[in-house]
UniProtKB/TrEMBL annotation:
The keyword Acetylation does not apply. The keyword Signal applies. This is Odorant-binding protein OBP57c. The chain crosses the membrane at residues 25-43. CDD domains: PBP_GOBP. It comes from the Eukaryota. Pfam families: PBP_GOBP (PF01395). It comes from Anastrepha fraterculus. SUPFAM superfamilies: Insect pheromone/odorant-binding proteins. Gene3D superfamilies: Pheromone/general odorant binding protein domain. InterPro entries: PBP/GOBP, PBP_GOBP_sf.
Length: 177
């Protein structure tokens, strides 16, 4: 699995991922939940069809329960995690979120095209997500793949428009929890 480095032009192996120092750092892995919530906000309600229970809040709760993760445990994870140091249950939680949102194709890879066509990703975000997808598509493990895509997207969005979502963190968390 590969992540993009600071200059976004050179891919670096997962153990060498750096923070750019720009944008904001979210506490622990709260960004996983915020990423899913931001996508839920941007996605028309009818598009959330692949969720285990249907309702966004129960869908996130189902992923937490399925992987035996508490909200407190998410808050205890590092701001800029080294993927090799993260327990597999958190990586599989990321996979659960992406699958539950219906963002994965039949091969278990991110369906960025569908997200773009549905208006979930604008043109710039789509190009960034294609880069994240390409950087991780060689990963065979679905949990590692999903976590890698989310880390890459987080890094790109921290440098771009993601700050606007962070301003609404309390509101976003209320919606999905």
């Amino acid at each position: 699995m590969y992540q993009f480095g600071v200059d976004r032009e050179n891919a670096t192996e997962r153990g060498e991922m750096y923070s750019s120092g720009k944008g904001m750092a979210l506490p622990r892995l709260t960004w996983l939940v915020i990423f899913a919530a931001a996508i839920l906000f941007l996605m028309p309600l009818g598009r959330v069809t692949a969720t285990p229970t249907g309702a966004p809040s129960s869908f996130v709760e189902a992923c937490l329960e399925q992987h035996k993760i508490t909200e407190e445990e998410l808050d205890e994870l590092p701001d800029d995690p080294n993927p090799e140091d993260i327990d597999m249950k958190y990586k599989c939680y990321a996979n659960c979120l992406l699958n539950g949102l219906g963002f994965m194709d039949e091969n278990g890879k991110l369906n960025a095209e569908m997200m773009h066509e549905a208006g979930i990703l604008n043109d710039d975000s789509y190009e960034d997500m294609i880069e994240c997808k390409a950087a991780n598509d060689m990963e065979d493990d679905p949990c590692e793949y999903s976590f890698g895509v989310m880390l890459c997207a987080r890094m790109i969005h921290a440098n771009d428009e993601y700050d606007e979502y962070a301003e609404n963190v309390p509101m976003v968390r209320e919606v999905i929890m």
